[in-house]
Specification:
This protein is an alpha/beta fold. It contains 11 helices and 13 strands. Helix 4 packs antiparallel against helix 5.
C-alpha cells in the first residue's frame, strides 16, 4: 500500500484546477480578440502555421509534470516489511482550559477552537510519545488517561466544550496536579520514579483566580516534570459571547448588567512556565511556538514502552520524478507551430 510521508504537500494539487481555469480563460480571451481582429479565413492566411491542438497538449504536459513534481515532494512510500523493535517515548499531559472565557473571539474563530487546533498540530509532530488530556475550568479532571492512540486523543479534544464543567473559573494549579496524577504521581499502587521524561502543556488564557499555579508548577518541576504554557487570546480585552442551543444570545454580564470582558493574562502564564522550567508560547506565534515546544520535548528522556511492530517504508519518489522529467521533455520538444515536414494528418490521409 502506498502512503505519503508529507501528506500536507498534496494540498498543492488544488493549484492545478485553478491553473486550468486560468488557462481556459486566457485562451477564450485570446480567441475573442482574434475574432474581433479578422475573420477565420483571413486569420488562417495570416497564421498558416498556427495549431489549435498543440498549445493544449503542451499545457496538459506541463500540468502533468507539475502533478508528478508535487507527488515527488510528498515522497510516496511503500511498506516493504514489518520489523520488531522497541517503542521509546515520553509522557505528555495536555491541560486544556474550557472555561467560559475560552469562547471569546479575540483569536479566530475563538480561543477554544484555536486551542483544539493547536493540540491537533502538536499530535501531528509527536512520535511514539504517550499523551493524556486534562480539561479544567473552576475544577479539573482527567478526560483521557495516558495513551499512544492519537486518533482517540483527537476525538476527545474535538468533543471538548465549555459546557463539560459547571464550576467556572480557571484552576491552572489543579489542572497541573491532575496531570501529575495521570503520570501516576501520588498513586500508592505505582512506585513513583523521578525522571526527565515527562512534560505538561497548559493551554489557557491565564485568568487564574483559584489557586497558586506558580507554586504548583514549581513542585512539578522539582519532580522532573517540565511545564509549558500556551496563551490564548489578546491583552486588549474582549466580551464573552453566550450561546443558547447553538445561537448567540448576547454577551456575558455581571450582576450590575455590565458586559464582562476577558483578556489574556500573559504574565501569569510566563510565571508558570518559568517555575516549571518550560517555555511560554503565545497564540499569535502558535506554529513556530509549537515547533519550539516539540524541539524541547524531543530532548526529554525516553522510556521504553516495550516491543512493538513497525513497518519499514521505502521511498518511491523516483517514479513520479522520472515521469515529471519525461513530461517536461515532451513539452520542450513539442512546438506550438505546425511541423510541415512531419504532418501526422497527411500521413493518416486526414484533411
Amino acid at each position: 500500500m502506498v502512503h505519503f510521508e508529507h501528506t500536507h504537500i498534496l494540498y498543492l494539487l488544488l493549484v492545478v484546477p485553478a491553473l486550468v481555469a486560468l488557462y481556459v480563460w486566457l485562451r477564450i480571451r485570446r480567441r475573442n480578440r482574434l475574432e474581433a481582429f479578422a475573420d477565420s479565413q483571413l486569420l488562417h492566411s495570416l497564421m498558416p502555421d498556427e495549431s489549435r491542438r498543440r498549445p493544449h497538449v503542451k499545457f496538459a504536459l506541463l500540468m502533468m509534470a507539475l502533478c508528478c513534481l508535487i507527488l515527488t515532494w510528498a515522497n510516496p512510500q511503500v511498506g516493504t516489511k514489518v520489523v520488531k523493535g522497541e517503542r521509546l517515548g515520553s509522557d505528555i499531559a495536555v491541560c486544556l482550559d474550557i472555561s467560559r472565557s475560552m469562547m471569546a473571539e479575540d483569536v479566530t474563530p475563538n480561543r477554544l477552537e484555536r486551542s483544539q487546533r493547536a493540540v491537533s498540530t502538536l499530535l501531528d509532530k509527536l512520535g511514539s510519545d504517550r499523551v493524556s488530556l486534562i480539561v479544567f475550568a473552576g475544577s479539573a479532571y482527567i478526560q483521557m488517561p495516558l495513551t499512544n492512540d492519537y486518533s482517540a486523543t483527537r476525538m476527545f479534544v474535538d468533543q471538548t466544550s465549555c459546557d463539560l464543567i459547571q464550576a467556572q473559573g480557571t484552576a491552572i494549579g489543579e489542572a497541573i496536579n491532575k496531570a501529575m496524577e495521570s503520570f501516576g504521581y501520588g498513586n500508592p499502587d505505582i512506585p513513583w520514579q523521578k525522571k526527565q521524561s515527562r512534560a505538561i502543556i497548559v493551554i489557557s488564557d491565564g485568568e487564574n483566580h483559584e489557586d497558586d499555579a506558580v507554586e504548583v508548577a514549581r513542585d512539578a518541576a522539582s519532580e522532573g516534570v517540565k511545564v509549558f504554557t500556551i496563551g490564548m487570546g489578546s491583552d486588549k480585552g474582549t466580551p464573552i459571547p453566550e450561546y443558547e442551543h447553538g445561537r448567540n444570545i448576547g454577551y456575558k454580564k455581571d450582576r450590575d448588567g455590565n458586559v464582562v470582558t476577558t483578556r489574556l493574562n500573559e504574565q501569569m502564564l510566563v510565571d508558570v512556565a518559568n517555575a516549571g522550567k518550560g517555555t511560554y508560547v503565545r497564540s499569535a506565534n502558535i506554529s513556530s511556538g509549537i515547533n519550539e515546544i516539540v524541539k524541547q520535548l524531543e530532548q526529554l528522556e525516553k522510556d521504553n514502552y516495550g516491543n512493538a511492530l513497525f513497518s519499514e517504508y521505502e521511498s518511491r519518489y523516483q517514479y513520479p520524478l522520472a515521469a515529471a522529467m519525461l513530461f517536461l521533455l515532451a513539452e520542450v520538444l513539442l512546438f506550438e507551430k505546425r511541423n510541415n515536414k512531419i504532418n501526422f494528418g497527411k500521413i493518416l490521409n486526414r484533411k
